[in-house]
From TrEMBL:
Gene Ontology MF: a single term: aminopeptidase activity
UniProt xrefs under Gene3D superfamilies: L-amino peptidase D-ALA esterase/amidase (3.60.70.12)
Protein name: Peptidase S58 DmpA
One Pfam family matching this protein: Peptidase_S58
PANTHER family named among the record's database cross-references: BLR5678 PROTEIN, D-AMINOPEPTIDASE
Signal sequence, start to end: none
Similarity section: Belongs to the peptidase S58 family.
Amino acid sequence: MTASGRSDGFAGGKIERGAWFEIPGVRVGHAQDPVARTGCTVVLVPEGAAGGVDVRGSAPGTRETDLLDPVNLVQQVHAVVLSGGSAYGLAAADGVMRFLEERGYGLDVGVGRVPIVPAAVLFDLAVGSAIRRPDAAMGYAACEAAREVPERGRVGAGAGATVGKALGYERAMDGGLGTAAVRLPGGLIVAALMAVNAVGHVVDPETGRVLAGPKGKDGRPLDTLALWGEGAVPGGLLPGTNTTIGAVVTNARLNKAQANKIAAVAQDGLARVIRPAHTMYDGDTIFALSTGEVEASVDVVGAFAAEVVAQAILDALP
């Protein structure tokens, strides 16, 4: 486990901002191009995990999310990809599929195995280079770099993330990729990693203080809603040019329907700290993965999923 030293917790379990508690069978890897300021992150669950997703923003870029619907056939996924590069970045999932196929993982279809790899992307083409994006090679490299405790900061899908675009990209602040986790009595673990690239600003949920957002003339972050209330409109933005994406991972025993519920409730954590959230300019997407070792209440898992998502977003800020 790594931790930033900040705990936001409740009796019976401390939420550790910047932490990641190891869950058997789960590894996380990043690959990035620091010059182009883009990258991808993969959550590997090669033996399979129940998966769910909630897409709340109005400009998403996703792959294989339909199969996570509980009415559809496939019951488990083998990885989830979070990527920069806008829709181009979905190609990173091809490399993840190749990595898993080479090692014999995937859905048995009789003539071979097909790895199930849902993905979501954020837009970072306006920083660094617009012509160098995550691809299959970068997805494969992220798998090779996977470890039990992930790195945080300007890595992977957070390499080119920015926050607060109400006054245009030139007045935005850096985002990044953050983590948070909690261990509860009975061995239940709920962890989140989030790549924060919001059009809105990020606040401290306890005080309402703006932590990152569009920069004023003095360099301090401003309140997006206050700017809009004064008549400002998003500067130079098009739909799909932002987006906060992430994943909640738990060792709770959940089915697909329950994993989808966890992903939906986890979006509450995003809305607590990003204002506004789920705009026409964002494609906010959260995955949920369950490895199934511990019996747990869906309500308990969901409640803490929202909390760790909020803290992971705060952790993503430089």
